[in-house]
Design goal:
Blueprint: H1 21-28, E1 32-36, E2 39-42, H2 44-63, E3 67-68, E4 74-76, H3 77-83, E5 95-97, E6 103-106, H4 111-121, E7 130-139, E8 154-164, H5 167-187, E9 192-196, E10 206-213, E11 219-224, E12 230-232, E13 254-257, H6 264-270, E14 278-286, E15 290-296, H7 303-310, E16 315-317, H8 320-327, E17 343-346, H9 348-351, E18 356-359, E19 365-370, E20 380-381, E21 400-415, H10 417-422, E22 425-427, E23 433-435, E24 437-444, H11 445-455, E25 457-458, E26 461-462, E27 473-477, H12 483-498, E28 503-505, H13 512-522, E29 526-530, H14 532-536, E30 539-544, E31 550-554, H15 558-565
Parallel strand pairs: 3-7, 14-18, 15-17, 17-20, 27-28, 27-29
Antiparallel strand pairs: 1-2, 4-6, 5-6, 7-8, 8-24, 9-10, 10-21, 11-12, 11-21, 13-19, 14-15, 14-16, 18-19, 21-24, 22-23, 25-26, 29-30, 30-31
Catalytic activity: tRNA(Pro) + L-proline + ATP = L-prolyl-tRNA(Pro) + AMP + diphosphate
Family: Belongs to the class-II aminoacyl-tRNA synthetase family. ProS type 1 subfamily.
Main location: cytoplasm
Length: about 575
Amino acid sequence: MRVSQMLLPTLREVPAEAEVVSHQLLLRAGFIRKTASGIYTYLPLAQRVLKKIMQIIREEMDRQGGQEMLMPIIQPAELWLESGRWHVYGPELFRLKDRHHRDFCLAPTHEEVITVTVRNEVRSYKQLPLLLYHITNKYRDERRPRFGLMRGREFIMKDLYSFDQDEAGLDISYRKMHEAYTNVFRRCGLTCRPVEADSGAIGGSTTHEFMVLAESGEAAILYCTACDYAANVEKAITLPAAGLDPGMQPLELQEVSTPGKKSAEEAAAFLQMEPCHIIKTMIYKTDQEIVAALVRGDRDVNEVKLLNALNAINLELADEETVRQATGAPTGYVGPVGLKNIRIVADPEVMALANAVAGANKQDAHLMNVHPGRDFKPDMVEDIRIVKAGEPCPKCGARLQEARGIEVGQIFKLGTKYSKVLGATFLDENGKEQPIVMGCYGIGVTRTMAAAIEQNHDQDGIIWPASIAPYHVVVIPVSAKDEAQMNLAETLYRELNQAGVEAVLDDRPERPGVKFKDADLVGYPLRVVVGNKAVQEGLVEVRRRRSGQTDLIPLSEAVAKVREILPTL
């Protein structure tokens, strides 16, 4: 391809709406253009990158026995009503009606369609296991689309679904996909780490997210350098809290005045104690009830853990009026002692406190010497706090480290969550009907492209890993007016393509500096410059984009040298 013939609308200025590096560079380098909020047009260079990512995905899915199919984007509401998710999924679900006023949605995921498809086609255990996948557009009406391709309303995704006879079969399918995902992201040139995660709206018992490590990542992950433990902050756990000292004597409950001391830190400072001796009481509303969540004063409530513990659909922090009506006190002075008609969920660390301090459910007052079990009894004791870096690893006890990550893939053990409700069954060896055991495995294709840039860039532009670069090499004649340079560049360009190297020729009548800047911005792994030395001495300049290393190579050896370097990039 000649650059003069390419649709390559590069920009010199950083677009104002672009917040993260990948969004900035995809716009500046002419890969994408915004069509609407969270919806983008992929220009030719982006399409080449996406096709390469998809090809890697296909090869790794097929290697594990996956079979590719294609499912519809428009799905009838009846399937979602049957699964129970039509009214649960929330406002992210794009809903529409056809001309007959029948309800449909744009697919955010395909559990319903694939489960019903298998329900209609699979009868016997002899037809299992199955690994079925497709790559297609997905739609989620994000409240606030942001970060370009990181959080869009339309995106490309690969999802694979496994169907097995039992949990043992699901374990095998899960391990296959774990291996496949590891290979996909390695082949895409990404530093990626699988972490334990929350299953969210998809459901299921076990799930791992595959995180590309990058400072711009939306998700915080905790990991151990001494073992293989890693989890996102929504899922991370630590070693159990130490129990009460059996020699500790509970003191008499005492009310003290704490005017204006609403936060745990303010109350602790006023009372001359550490925040870890405070019981922080947070009031939440679910779809069914008011809940008091108790954590230590130096901790924060993990709302995902709390939501799961309550088995609720929705959870939000209660407003000031709700707090007053439920407890009789303003926010900041609520405590568990004497609370009525409110379910209390306490973190295990709270139950390990003795002679603690809590809100007195009265303006400007706290209670001293609160003793869990004596002064209040929680309805539930569950891990509901956020774990932070520096705390001990739950597997080996070493200190956890924190990093930022971009989720590019997630794998789920669904079990029979969908097969039972949608009636996907099979007859086992004894002729008995059993529910199919399922797994779900997704990769964000467009997000993977963006994550690759977040992890591979510098101040001059993108640095593509060779495996997913739109082109491997750009051949640049220094002067388009010099016939000898142009002839040599044309010949080298043809020879590279004939040798299986994806090359472009920058034949534009632009200054060399403009061409070099565009080459760095687009991120071609290699740049070959044909100048006066090529004409006079038979030497061309080969420059590696990532390291900046430049070599002078005899023109006759240039193709072989390029083919030698590419696998290392």
